[in-house]
Amino acid sequence: MCMKPDQSRPCWQCGLALLVSGWLLSPLVAHAQAVPLAERLQLCAGCHNPDGNSSIPENPNLSGLDADYIVRQLQDFKSGSRKSPVMSGIIPMIDDKEFPALAEFFSKQKPKPGAKADAKLAAQGKEIYDEGIVGSAVPACSGCHNEDGSGTEKYPRIAGQHSSYVIQQLINFKSGERANDVKAVMRAVAKRMNEKEIRAVAEYVVTLKGAQE
Ligand code: HEC
Ligand code: HEC
Q1: pLDDT score, position 32
Q2: Interior angle at CA 47, CA 207 and CA 95, nearest 5
Q3: What is the pLDDT of residues 183-209, one digit of tens each?
Q4: pLDDT over threshold 80, residue 182
Q5: How far apart are CA 203 and CA 190, in angstroms?
Q6: CB-ligand 2 contact for 143 (6 Å cutoff)
Q7: pLDDT, tens digit (0-9, with 9 covering 90-100), for 7-41
């Protein structure tokens, strides 16, 4: 890519740019050094908020997620089996040894209720969530994620998750952009849904409160 159209070798400006970016990035990539949890959490808090209830709807809530689920997602971002323009830039800085403590911290944070939803759309979403879509063989979400969205050991909590994040993940599973789901279960579900159905179900998911203590 770093070629001028009339040259077969890299132009010197590009070479310099590569060299400089190499210098700038190499400490981050090469030395993913473990730092104390409190210090590391400041980095996460910038996007996921200190209590894991993020204010920006594109950044998922991490509060109340199962710790093993969080660890695996972090590993998948690191190995590249789950891609995200944002997290893929963050994760090389973090030592794998930090993953369990980070996961433990966020799994213990209390989830906050999701944003107010469009009632009509959410009612359509509830039907899909509880019953699935018979015509296109979409299974009920509740069968795996629980009726209240609280999830199980095997299936992640989705209750109260930001609808724009849920929509994006379903679109990513549908297109195969996200392909780190074991046995392709979510890809099989999302593939059968159209965008209107995805929007409706996401609008319902945000209203779910999870298990009440
Ligand atoms: C610059 C913003 C940013 C920072 C900093 C950041 N994240 Fe993220 N994080 C995101 C975004 C955006 C996503 C959604 C990725 C996608 O689209 O799949 C995400 C996704 C995740 C997920 C997947 C959640 C799920 O439900 O599957 C986990 C776990 C996570 N981040 C943990 C962390 C931890 C731990 C830190 C701190 C070490 C951190 N993040 C720092 C923006 C950020
Ligand atoms: C057969 C079980 C099953 C069914 C049915 C199912 N899911 Fe999932 N879902 C999963 C699994 C497993 C994952 C975790 C994927 C992974 O390992 O990364 C997941 C992940 C998700 C995620 C991503 C969560 C996150 O934090 O990033 C969303 C959103 C989601 N499912 C929504 C739905 C919706 C909406 C439905 C119904 C239309 C549904 N699921 C039906 C098993 C299921």
Answers
A1: 84
A2: 120
A3: 999 999 999 999 999 999 999 999 999
A4: yes
A5: 15
A6: yes
A7: 444 444 444 444 444 445 544 554 689 999 999 99
CA distances (Å), origin 98, targets 35, 52, 68, 155, 179: 8, 17, 13, 23, 24
In this predicted model, what pLDDT tens digit does every residue of 91-147 receive, in sequence order?
A: 999 999 999 999 999 999 999 999 899 999 999 999 999 999 999 999 999 999 999
Query: Whose C-alpha lies nearest to ligand 1, atom 2?
Result: 47
With a 6 Å cutoff on the Cβ, whether 57 touches ligand 1 is no
CA of 48 to the centre of ligand 1 (A): 7
C-alpha span between 202 and 166 (Å, rounded):
6
Alpha-carbon gap, residue 122 to 45, rounded angstroms? 30
Burial 173-211 (b: 16+ CB within 10 A, else e): bbeeebebbeeeebbebbebbeeebbbbbbbbbbbbebe
Identify which of 165, 204, 170 has the alpha carbon closest to the alpha carbon of residue 189. 170
**Substitution site in 35, 70, 73, 86 for ligand 1 pocket (most atoms within 8 Å of beta carbon):** 86
Evaluate whether 103 touches 109 at the Cβ level (below 8 Å).
no
Cα 117 from chain centre: 21
Give the distance (Å) from ligand 2 centre to CA of residue 187: 9
Any ligand 1 atom below 6 A from CB of 89 = no
